Amino acid sequence: MTFRRKLLTVFALTVFLSVAAVAGLVLAVTRSAFEKTEGQRTAALISQFQIEFRHQGEDVARRVEAIAQSEPVTRMATALNGTSADSAGYFELAKSMADSRQLDFLELVDGHGTIISSAQWPAKFGYPEVAFENLSASTEQGAFLKQEEMQDSTALGLFAVRATRVGDHPVYVIGGRRLDKGFLSALDLPADMRALLYQNRGDHFSADLLLDPSSGESVSDGARPAEKFATLIEAVRQYNQEMSGIVRWSSDQADDEGFHAIPLRSVGKDHPLLGILLIGTSRRSYVELKRHIRASALLVGGGGIVLAILLSSWAAARVTRPVEQLARAARNVAAGNWDTRVDVPGDDEVSQLADSFNRMTTELLTQRERLVQTERVAAWRELARRLAHELKNPLFPLQLTVENLVRARLQNPEQFDEVFRESSRTLLAEISNLKTIIGRFSEFSKMPHPQLQQLSVNELVRGVAQLFQAQLQAPGRSPIACKLELDESLAPIAADPELLHRAISNLVLNAMDAMPTGGTLTLRTKPDDGKVIIEVADTGSGLTREECERIFTPYYTSKQHGTGLGLAIVQSVVSDHGGRISVRSEPGQGTTFMIELPSNPDTLQKTRA
After folding, report:
1. Do the beta carbons of residue 458 and residue 486 sit within 8 Å?
2. Sign (positive/negative) of CA torsion 64, 69, 73, 79?
3. Tell me, what DSSP letter sits at residue 124?
4. Residue 316: per-residue pLDDT
5. CA distances from 337 to 160, 341, 361, 368 (A)
6. What is the DSSP letter of 86?
7. Which residues contact 233 (CB under 8 A, 6 or more apart)?
8. Alpha carbons 609 and 592: distance in angstroms, whole number
9. Which residue, of 212, 378, 511, 590, has the fewest CB within 10 Å?
């Protein structure tokens, strides 16, 4: 990935993560604020329900107290006190008293717990009142919830019990009002909240028992079926505690409502669950706000990414372009063009880097010139030393021979002819040695450029082995075995057969010199990823690490008599072919020279054409 793309990715990712983090934080804060507000409003509505419950209870208690103290009830209590008077005459009294006091429920019960008169179910006359364990104790408490059995149904109401005492046998007045949609309508509800009441009867949820003042006695329309409340109500019934949940009316989350369910219990034995108050809050405002935040985040994020693209383009023009120039200049320097310059205007870090690069190339040029001069002087000195060494060896015998001739001419004229003949042979031999030395130096200085043509490396190696076969088994020296390991699948390459023959021959001669006591010479060929490998290995004494590092240096030799040009010639030939030569050796483990040559397919096609 280029630096420009990385810069664009970093900018875009930074903007995206920043916007996402801010949006997530805003959503979290919004949700927390909504839940807090919803909790406060629900608590306020519950408090309002409790206040209304108390107010209605106090009103019911006052009305029941008024009935208990009324003249008709007092006369009835007097007439029934301790006598066996017929109570059938009071059959209609509860109905008339309930209508006059605006109560939905009213029953008159004697001291033995027998119903004298019932406004809601007259047929209960004469039956015992079993809803209360102790009517006398109930007269001391305020209003309470109670499920009342009707003639054809059961109703939930707010009741109070009061007594009329005449003598020893009181008459109890049990009255109350329905806890229904009228009670819920009295609550002051915000526009996005509503209150529902579920009358807990039976063992399973029933939609007919769910009251909603905004839709009649029960909730059963198709758009918002009451069955949606079943899970929440069943949970309250199972655990008998307050529960909260979300009711989903459609696939649109804006239609969702959050409901808080509060159990309503009786004050009787075991506090049975009589009803469930459901306080609902619409989540539309929250969902729409959340959608608005998300849309704003997407808009800001999209704009930020566009801005990141523009900013990265500007940064690329300002930063990456000079960096690319520096990269190209560095590649040029690596390719050998050391006078490369980079022109980056400005005074920032990139321009300072460019100035440093320019100073570096200038210093490299200066150092290269110095190094070239130093190497040139060192090369001339080495050449002078080598020439002096090589020429000194034959010159000393020449000097001795001439001195012997002069001495013989002066001291023994009669033996001069014999001395002259021996000295002439010596002079000619040393002069020939001088010519050989000079020829080697001249040969190295006139290395021809390779004339590439199609060449079978295996055939070339076989030819070299055949040429030296006689010397390897020459009488008077320890024999050397020659082993060929040639890969027959080797394809022809483009090379100069004469120069390559000469290079391999020099390596074979070095191998023979390294095995004065005999050994094994191995010539090996193999392909390697589009290249050809030629190995010349011996089992001689081997080389040290220092010798391996210096062995290809011109004029360096480890032999007692040698110019040090053999391996230099080999390296020159291999280098002119675009190849590489290396050595692997350890003292006492032998030496292996490896030549890597390119196949040069393009040149090979031209030679075939």
Report:
1. yes
2. positive
3. G
4. 66
5. 109, 10, 9, 12
6. -
7. 198, 205, 261, 276, 278
8. 37
9. 378
Phi, psi angle pair for 218, to nearest 5°: -140, 160
pLDDT at position 270: 65
Q: Is the pLDDT of residue 537 over 90?
A: yes
Q: Among positive and negative, which fits the CA dihedral 467, 469, 475, 476?
A: positive
- Residue 474 tokens read as 């020459």
The tokens of 197 are what? 């009441």
Q: How far is CA 195 from CA 244, 274, 351, 489, in A?
A: 14, 17, 73, 94
Query: Pseudo-torsion of CA 264, 267, 268, 272, nearest 10°?
Result: 20
As beta bridge partners, residue 314 has: none
26 backbone dihedrals φ, ψ, rounded to 5°: -65, -40
- What's the CA gap between 210 and 185, in Å, rounded? 15
Which H or E run contains 386? helix 349-411
**pLDDT, tens digit, 9 for 90 and up, residues 247-288:** 988 888 888 888 999 998 876 556 788 889 988 888 888 888
The Cα 541–Cα 524 span in angstroms is 20
Task: Find how far residue 273's CA is from the centre of its chain.
Answer: 54
Break the chain down into helix, strand, coil percent, rounded to 5: 55, 20, 30
Supply the angle between the helices 93-101 and 71-80 in degrees, to the nearest 10.
Answer: 150
Apex CA 437: angle with CA 509 and CA 570, to 5°?
Answer: 40
Per-residue burial over 476-496, b if 16 or more Cβ lie within 10 Å, else e, is eeeebebeeebeeebebbbbb
- Side chain identity at residue 437, one-letter code: I
Instruction: Please return the burial class of 598, using the count of CB atoms within 10 Å of its CB with bins 0-12, 13-18 and 19+.
Output: middle
DSSP labels for 405-465? HHHHHHH-GGGHHHHHHHHHHHHHHHHHHHHHHHHHHHHHHTPPPP--EEE-HHHHHHHHH
Q: Which two tokens stand for residue 142?
A: 């305020």
> Residue 423 — very low, low, confident or very high, per pLDDT cuts 50/70/90?
confident
For residues 312-331, b (16+ Cβ closer than 10 Å) or e, as one string?
Answer: beebbeebbebbebbeebee
Residues whose CB is less than 8 angstroms from the CB of residue 126 and which lie 6 or more positions away in sequence, other chains included: 114, 115
Q: Which pLDDT tens digit goes with each residue over 469-510?
A: 888 888 877 889 999 999 998 889 889 898 899 889 989 988
Whether residue 450 contacts residue 495, with contact meaning beta carbons closer than 8 Å, is answered with: yes
Q: How far is CA 590 from CA 469, 510, 594, in A?
A: 20, 12, 13
Q: What is the pLDDT of residues 371-408, one digit of tens each?
A: 766 665 555 565 556 666 566 666 667 767 777 777 77
Containing 593, the helix (H) or strand (E) segment is strand 591-598
C-beta separation of 592 from 536 below 8 A: yes
Query: For residue 373, what is the DSSP state?
Result: H
Residues 6+ apart with CB under 8 A from 589: 542
| Selection from 453, 539, 434, 445 nearest residue 497 by Cα | 453
Cα separation, 427 vs 433, whole angstroms: 10
Quick one: which H or E segment has residue 159? strand 154-164
Nearest to 105 by CA among 138, 70, 60: 60
Judge whether 315 and 324 are in contact, CB under 8 Å: no
- Name the 3-class secondary structure at 484: strand
3-class SS of residue 81: coil
